[in-house]
Amino acid sequence: MVIGVGCDSTGPTDPEDAPPPRPLTATEQNVVDTDNAFGLTLLRSTVDAEDPSKNVFLSLLSVSMVLGMTLNGARGETRAAMETALEKQDLSPAELNDAYRGLIDLLKGLDPDVDVALANSIWYCEGLPVEEAFIDTNRTHFDAEVAALDFAAPSAADRINGWVNDETRGNIPKIVLDPIPPEIVMYLINATYFEGPWRDQFDPSNTEPGAFRRTDGSTVTVPMMEKMEEVVHPTYTADQFRALDIAYGDSLYSMTILLPRDDASVEGVVNSLDTETWAQVTEGLSPRSLRRLEMPTFTLRYEKALNDVLTDLGMGVAFTNAANFRDIADTALAISEVKHKTFLRVDEAGTEASAATSVGIEVTSAPPSFVVDRPFVVAIRENHSGTILFLGTVMDPTAE
């Protein structure tokens, strides 16, 4: 990405006539802050565990929300470990559930020009004595759809995967195995969808092939979008990177790109990101005139089992025979797998992003089974609440 910076612009970047969103409650702000803190830690841990040349793209909101639903079934040491990993130890169950209820309502209808859909579901094996309180809490606070299925039936996986496919607009057609493993007795799933047009779209006639430099020094040719006239975008300058914010719709959602300096790396930028650094970026963004803006069009898909990362963050007990999920059902249960899949498409018109996160619950008595021409960090965030919806690294935009 090339960012040519000219003089400062003092003009507003948001529409002046837009009605102000409702303020967040103190608890909602606390949940946003802790979700973002957890998400930044999750990104650092995931990038550290991946091949350095691989793209990483996570939906922090999707992972936090589905684990928030799962938390309603945890007790004792298991709940405490999950709360610590999710940085929710200072919130009561009622505060956490009420905050997610409020955020779901806020995010889905905030910008009429941006399509944001948050869907949750619980699928359990017929005969599992699921606690009514667990079902009622997740229905009330997470709008969770609930269904009992014969997990041994050939149609069971198709039913669940069909729901995910529908809720992600076909971008993630499958999240659970077919057939469903015999030890699995429940899936909790979040599907998150985002489609936003750029507030100021790129002209497709200006898109031409350009070089993108990968970490190893090699280059690939990608379609490069370009705005050649002088444009104004919020920017921020740090020691390791320059940041650029590109607005969607009415500017309540935006894409934030952190482009490492030539003597820095994506890994170094990611490792420097904590809540304090992220706040410095988002609060320090200031409108600047750019002589030129180039960035690639690309589509990527990412998939990751998060068991090891979440174990490293402190919730390992939830994956073991010592797990206590008695508030789901009065039987020995543990998390089998937390699976995360994402999709991202960026082109001249805007951005489409989808995520699905599944938490498989198993019976533990069974056997365990800016030119953006080099790698960059990308986030999709909602600017009123500060919620980070998606966060990742693009190491090679030609690698789906």
Structure description:
The protein has 400 residues and is an alpha+beta fold. It has a domain at 26-32 and 56-197 and 301-369: Antithrombin, Chain I, domain 2. Helix content is 28%, strand content 34%. It contains 9 helices and 16 strands. The strands form 2 sheets. Strands 1, 2, 6, 7, 8, 9, 10, 11, 15 and 16 form a 10-stranded antiparallel beta sheet that branches. Strands 4-3-5-14-13-12 form a 6-stranded mixed beta sheet, with helices on both faces. The longest helix is centred in the N-terminal third of the chain and has 24 residues, at 26-49. It starts with a strand and ends in a 6-residue tail after the last strand. Mean pLDDT is 92; it is low at 1-15.
Q: Nutshell version of this structure?
A:
The protein is α+β, with helices and mostly antiparallel strands and 400 residues long. Helix content is 28%, strand content 34%.
Question: What structural class results from the helix and strand content?
Answer: alpha+beta
Q: What would you call the shape?
A: globular
Taking all residues together, what is the mean pLDDT? 92
The unreliable regions are: 1-15
CATH topology of one domain: Antithrombin, Chain I, domain 2
Query: How far is the N terminus from the C terminus?
Result: 20 Å
CATH architecture label name of one domain: 2-Layer Sandwich
Content of β-strand: 25-35%
Number of helices: 9
Helical percent range?
Answer: 25-40%
N-to-C order of helices and strands: EHEHHHEHEHEEEEEEHHEEHEEEE
Task: Report the sheet with the most strands, covering strand number, pairing sense and barrel closure.
Answer: 10 strands, antiparallel
User: What is the H level of CATH, i.e. the homologous superfamily of one domain?
Assistant: Antithrombin, subunit I, domain 2
CATH class of one domain: Alpha Beta
Calculate Rg over CA atoms: 21 Å
Task: Tally the beta strands.
Answer: 16
